[in-house]
Amino acid sequence: MSEKKNLKNLLNNKMQRRTFLKWSGAIGIPVIAGGIGTKMLVDSKEETTVLNAKEKEKIISTCSINNCGGRCVIKAHVKDGVVVRVSTDTQESGDLSVPPLRACVRGRNYRSMLYHPDRLKYPMKRVGKRGEGKFKRISWEEAIETIASEVKRIGDQYGPESRYVNYASGQSWGLHGGKNAARKLLSLTGGFLNYRNDYSSGAGNVATPYTYGTNNSGSSFDSLLHSKYIILWGQNPSEMIFSTPYREYLMQAKKNGAKIIVIDPRYTDTVIAFADEWIPILPTTDNAMMDAMGYVIITEKLHDQAFLDKYCIGFDGDHMPDGVPKEESLKSYLLGEKDGIAKTPEWAEKICRVPANKIREIAREYAKTKPAALIQGWAAQRQAYGEQFMRGGAQLACLTGNVGKIGGWAAGTGYWSRSDIVYPFSYENPVKASIPCFLWTKAVEKGTEMTAADGLEGTEKLTSNIKLIFNMAGNMLINQHSDINKTVKLLEDESKVEFIVVSDLYMTPSAKFADILLPGTTFFERYDIGVPWCFGDYVVFGDKTIDPLYECRDEYDVFADVAGKLGLKEKFTEGKTTLDLVKESVERTKKELNPNFPTFEEFRGKGVHHFKYDAPLVGFKEQIDDLENHPFETPTGKIELFSKALWDMNNHDEIPAIAKYIPAWEGPEDPLKEKFPLQLISWHYKRRCHSTYDNQPWLEESAKQEMWMNPTDAEKRGINNGDRVQVNNERGSLFIDVKVTPRITPGVVGIPQGAWYTPDKEGLDQRGSVNVLTSQRPTPLAKANPQLTNLVEVKKGKE
Amino acid sequence: MTATTESLHIQLQPFFLSRKKFYQLLHLLFLPPNNKVLAGIRNRANFHDLEEVHEGGKILQHFFGHLSNEQINKEKEEYQRLFIGPGPLAAPPWESYYRSKEQMLFEEWTYQIREQYHQFGLQFMKENKEPDDHLLLELEFMIFLTDKSMQEARPERILELIVSQINFLEKHLTIWIPFFCERVIENTNSQLYLGAAMLLEDFLIFDLTSLLELGEALTDV
């Protein structure tokens, strides 16, 4: 009885007195029928199975297809529809015909990327001013309707050349993806303005073919096992994954006894892991060292005269094209016969800071140790006269006769490929006009004024400036293009580009400039196939691991719906899903290209396929073995150390016919150095793929965004390790923490590229986004990005 | 015996009903705002009586006293900024975010919550598309449990349901909600979400105390 009384007391008195309940007991609750989110818990559909059968962990092998050079195997451990962890390839090292495709630090973070709270979750439309970052959630129906009507309106009003799909490096490889889906839609509705080239090896892609007729100047990595001497010139495969197993081969080459030299302004992770010697050099001056190496090789008669006579045009006065004076030859230039300047190591030392004797030593070793591989990275061609760097390396390979020989290397851009798959999703653009990708902002500003001199091809004149941009899974709209401040102003003007669609995983600096913002999928949420850039004998299956989260959708499906709105769905999909595309690729690859290719189920089961070959692929072996029947793809059929085509362009100071050192604007010889005394470079950081993953905390922990600066430069400015500094030039200003380290050449500072532009109220970047400081001035021949050519000053910043 | 059972069931009705209404109100306050929801709350919930005793109530009383279309539009923007995105959220409304070391979604807490729903024959409509541990879902689950308690006549079942609610509050809501509310309070100037967050945090702690006391009393019976 007494206990009962207690309860009664409690309920009637103590609790009733509690104001909360007293109050809520008295209020009315409005009934909101059918409102969003009013009732989200429903009767469980499969109560018994859900309750009893806890699913066992499944391992699904998949692959990311962003613009990393490699493709690694990502194993998703899935339980109850959720990725609980990721692991990677378990293939043992040792057998180089099946090298392990293991994930680097970036790959280990993929689960966090998938389930990060900042994922874009729903379609949005812009409500504030463009770039302000104000959006409103909308339905997919509204998003698709808007895109369809703008595609039509802008096409009708300005013509198809006003529509553009921007270069992008997010979901950028594979069989489908946003870029291709957008291009197909535009192709079906009149077409779009094409772009050519890329931001990676833009100068090289145009320059190397003037020497060799092609960019495929590389050899398969197993050829390096035969090399005795390897120069990695501005290449950093420890951070920048050119191909997932490349480093396995490089390590084996080293074990086989090859001496490895790394030439780089920074003491990189590659130097630490592989190099016998590090040669620091000033950015933009590589060709001075190359010229001097050539000088040493010729004057010490270490060159391969027979090779040069047989295969090359323009080495000496006896091998010049018709109508070109003899003293324009490479040899004449190096000896200074015309300009009176012999390109001696002493001459070069003053420019590039590599000691003359060191240049001599490297030149001799490279020329005498056979076979030798001079492998060029692409950083040093992302500069004012980047074309010269790529042709300069090729020149040295020819001087030493290292072309077409196993264990040698032809240098130049260095692509190689012998393993391909079928790409079933295709489009045909009725518009033939194209611009160099780096000049898209020019085509926004004054496209109709562009001419062949700006790299416009396929038409004399454009009918319109760019009015519509699809920026799918890319950050080139703001962050990765040069001169962010300039691009921001351009895009803020809504009368210029009238409509911008962005699809992405996160709210990137580019996504902020969307008019319609779409939530994309990660590779976990879709089917695809991963192939490495252009180097590697493997493909990786990209299995769909889980259904897309939130309201995220594949761009393929989105654009199929947009096509549907315009009555073109069937033409767009041809009745195929993305899974159908993957199956078709596998089946047709087996049938049309390679009978040893696995079936769809086999490929899916294994997750990876290694193509096997009996011998290494050696670049230009056919030509060197039998030039008569296999000429080079150049106008003369030979290697053109001297290019008549370049000569005829008649701009010999900036576009010389032979590769040579040209002092860069904003290089170490530019008078602007008085005001901005430090050269600024950037590099591909191990914690990011371009700008992808910049918002991932694990990766920031693994490698912080910070600027490298030499102690001598820091001391002069009263800067200590860890200080916050302000870096500026006439284009912009940013704040970043500094790492004071002898691992970078004096006079040079380095900022890892790809940090997300994060302006404060005054518009000053707080994250260290290097493109605040870079220039939109293109290289002379390729019209490519010069983003490693910058002069800056650094001062201690506010805390 | 029957009489006692009935009487317990009946005795507890007002208590459960008040709690249910409180949870319903909190749920409404954190729904995507629109005219219907906000005008509905203004017309039926009387914050005037709460004004004296709770700071959050006072703020809400002021907010609902000055409700206008313009204000509602501002709240829509604010709601999107705090809880929807795009981009980093000022106050992510998921339990996993506050409890995992890495501030991720779909961490173990999401599954613990999911299991709770499943145990009661419930399932989130967007299971595996969105996390199960969203604030609105956890509140909806509390409404469900309270409702179930009201409908239950058997004392031992009532006790079980009370224990379930205690566990859910103890192991989940009262652990992460204070951090969530702190984020809201620090990041918003909105009277609506400031008041709602203060009320949410205090009510949950109060509710847990009440249930613990009730549980003890019932065990004594």
Mean pLDDT of chain A comes to: 95
Q: What is the third-level CATH name, the topology of chain B? A: TorD-like
Q: How many distinct domains of chain A?
A: 4
Sketch the major β-sheet of chain B. none
Query: What ranges of chain A have pLDDT less than 50 throughout 5 or more consecutive residues?
Result: 48-52
Our Rg estimate of chain A from Cα atoms comes to 29 Å
Written overview of the protein:
The complex is a heterodimer of chains A (799) and B (221). Chain A is an alpha/beta fold. Chain A has four domains: 68 residues, no CATH class; 230 residues, Rossmann fold, CATH 3.40.50.740; 225 residues, Dimethylsulfoxide Reductase, domain 2; 126 residues, Barwin-like endoglucanases (Beta Barrel), CATH 2.40.40. Helices cover 29% and strands 15% of the residues of chain A. In chain A, strands 6-5-17-16-15-7 form a six-stranded mixed β-sheet, covered by helices on one side. In chain A, helix 8 packs parallel to helix 16, helix 11 packs across helix 15 and helix 11 runs parallel beside helix 16. In chain A, 55% of the residues are buried. Chain B is an all-alpha fold and 221 residues long. Chain B is 75% helix and 1% strand. Chain B contains ten helices and one strand; from the N terminus they run αααααααβααα. In chain B, helix 8 runs antiparallel to helix 9. The mean pLDDT of chain B is 93. Classes of the chains: A alpha/beta (799), B mainly alpha (221). At the A-B interface, helix 1, helix 2, strand 1, helix 3 and strand 6 of A face helix 1, helix 2, helix 5, helix 7 and strand 1 of B.
